Amino acid sequence: MPSKLSSFAILCLALLGAAPAAQAERLKELASIAGVRENQLSGYGIVVGLDGTGDQTSQTPFTVQSIQAMLQQKGINLPPGTQLQLKNVAAVMVTTSLPAFAQPGQTIDITVSSIGNAKSLRGGTLLMTPLHGADGQVYAMAQGNVLVGGVGAQVAGAQVQVNHLSVGKISAGATVERAVASTLGADNQIRLELKQTDFSTAARVVEAINDQFGAGVATALDGRVVRVRTPSSSDQRVAFIGQLENIDVSRGKDAARVVMNARTGSVVMNQAVMLDDCAISHGNLTVTVGSDTNVSQPAPGSLGATAVTQTPSVEVKKDPGRVLMLKGGASLADVVKAMNAIGTTPQDLLAILQALKSAGALRAELEII
């Protein structure tokens, strides 16, 4: 039975062929403003109040050390040699992202993840945990009841688990304690950073901004960064950036790219990919990409001239002799379709794509995932 390795590729190519010309996109979809970003925070904490599903302290000594240190801070000194059996406690890592321009007093959501061997964090309470940034400073304090979106049950000796029980979330579980200094609008300018480096898109962004706000407002520094002059006052700058983000820009055409999943055989192309003349032999497969010469003679007595055209063709052979010939566009899509029609495997397609790229016959970037 023929494999289905190219069904996804055929669908993508059909959609690409039927799609209209690329429409303009808002600038906020194409670029971000330098300095306007989230900052990752993390901290080590303790979850208490579990129903016997906490860490096995014999295998996680750091949980016991954490409890002992916490009790000492509370003024409780344990007798020497005390062996704690903590079934309702779990050591966790708390992670979150600090939004741009977040101010002290605001709350953010956090994720709580077990780092020991706790079976479940369901029903637990996170004790006050400082969240640090990359610079080691405390930017938020976290605490609250952990919400785990899963269920664990044991029926007639069989254990059933839905979702992941060792990770939970706390909505508004952290309070911002320190704001990140912002340099937005320093020297009355901002820098737009395109999400993908493309010189044609950068040039179009500059043209669109200058058409909207006047010549000289925007200047391209390279294929990724555009410098924009802004008003000096903060309220005018905010209004200016709001208008700037909603400018429509026609993005430059991306470079041809072919992405293949080596495990499933899925092939995705962002546009029609053409091939140069080539011939590949792989195992019992032979792939030939070339062109046929067509000669058109004018009618007797007419003033027309003889026309010679080249029609691209793709030929795929698989022993014992089954041949499929395709004409009218020597593209990678034709090769994929032809190979699929004779039942090739994802490994065969992967090897042929790599050979096409190595030989310089594939006019696209090849990415294997």
TrEMBL record:
HAMAP family: FlgI
Gene of this entry: flgI
Pfam families referenced in this protein's UniProt entry, alphabetically: FlgI (PF02119)
Cell location: Bacterial flagellum basal body
Described function: Assembles around the rod to form the L-ring and probably protects the motor/basal body from shearing forces during rotation.
Assembly, per entry: The basal body constitutes a major portion of the flagellar organelle and consists of four rings (L,P,S, and M) mounted on a central rod.
TM spans (from-to): none
Family: Belongs to the FlgI family.
Signal peptide positions on this chain: 1-24
Keywords: Bacterial flagellum, Cell projection, Cilium, Flagellum, Signal
Keyword Signal part of the UniProt annotation: yes
Protein name as it appears in the record: Flagellar P-ring protein
